[in-house]
Design goal:
The protein contains ten helices and eight strands. With about 220 residues, it is α/β, with parallel strands linked by helices.
C-alpha cells in the first residue's frame, strides 16, 4: 500500500465505491458474457476500457449488444454467485459504525447490484438498467452511467444531497472511467487499479483486501 496524502486529511463522512473489481471480485459484464458464450469478445473490450484505450460509453453499448438473447434467468443466476471482495463487508460495517454514508456508483446493472447489496447494505446505489423484454436481454442499456465521465456528475449530486462538497468525499475505484471522479473528490483510493487511475490517486492499494482501507476512515 502506497500512501501519498499531501494535505488531504480532512474528516469525511461520505464514501463512494465502484463495484466491479472493487466491492466485488469480478466484472459483472464479463461474467454475463461467459454465460452468453461471448466471454472473450467482451473481456477484450473490458480490458481496453479499463485502461482508457476506448471510450466507456461506446464500449458499454458494444458489450451489452453482445449479450442480446441472454435469458433473464441466467442473469439472476450470475447475480446470486458474484463473489464479494475480501474485506468488503468488514469495511462497510466499520464505515457505517463511524457514521459514513456508503454509496455504490457503477456502470454495471442494477439487476445484479441489487442482489450484491443484500450482502452489503449500501445506503445508495446508482447503476444502469440492463434492458430485458419478454425474459430476454435486448442488447440495450439505459441509465445515468452510460457515458465516460458520468460518475463525477453523480458524485456531485450525491454530495450536494448530503449537504457537503465533493472535497468532503472519499472515492474508491479501479479503472479509467473513475478518473474524473478521482480528480473531483477530496480523497481518492485506487484499489488494484489500472495505471491510468493510479496516476491521479491519493492512495494506491495493490492487495485484494478492502479491510486495508479501515485505518483511513
Amino acid at each position: 500500500m502506497n500512501l501519498h496524502l499531501g494535505g488531504k486529511v480532512r474528516r469525511r463522512k461520505l464514501i463512494i465505491f465502484d463495484v466491479d473489481s472493487t466491492l466485488i471480485d469480478a466484472e459483472i459484464i464479463d461474467e454475463l458474457a461467459e454465460v452468453a458464450g461471448v466471454g472473450k469478445e467482451v473481456a477484450k473490450i473490458t480490458s481496453m476500457v479499463m485502461k482508457g484505450e476506448i471510450d466507456f460509453g461506446k464500449a458499454l453499448r458494444e458489450r451489452v449488444q453482445l449479450l442480446r438473447g441472454l435469458p433473464e434467468t441466467e442473469v439472476i443466476k450470475v447475480a446470486e454467485h458474484i463473489p464479494i471482495m475480501p474485506g468488503a463487508e468488514r469495511l462497510l460495517r466499520e464505515a457505517k459504525s463511524k457514521g459514513y454514508t456508503v454509496v455504490a456508483v457503477t456502470g454495471s446493472f442494477m439487476i445484479v447490484v441489487n442482489t450484491v447489496n443484500e450482502r452489503l447494505n449500501l445506503d445508495y446505489i446508482v447503476a444502469n438498467e440492463l434492458v430485458i423484454k419478454d425474459g430476454m436481454v435486448t442488447g440495450e442499456v439505459k441509465g445515468p452511467l452510460t457515458e465516460q465521465n458520468a460518475k463525477v456528475h453523480v458524485l456531485e449530486q450525491i454530495a450536494k444531497s448530503e449537504g457537503m462538497s465533493p472535497q468532503d468525499c472519499i472515492v474508491v475505484g479501479d479503472g479509467a472511467n473513475d478518473v474524473a471522479m478521482f480528480e473531483k473528490a477530496g480523497l481518492s483510493i485506487a484499489f488494484n487499479a489500472d495505471p491510468v487511475l493510479k496516476t491521479v490517486a491519493d492512495i494506491i492499494i495493490d492487495q485484494k483486501d478492502l479491510g486495508l482501507l479501515i485505518p483511513l476512515l
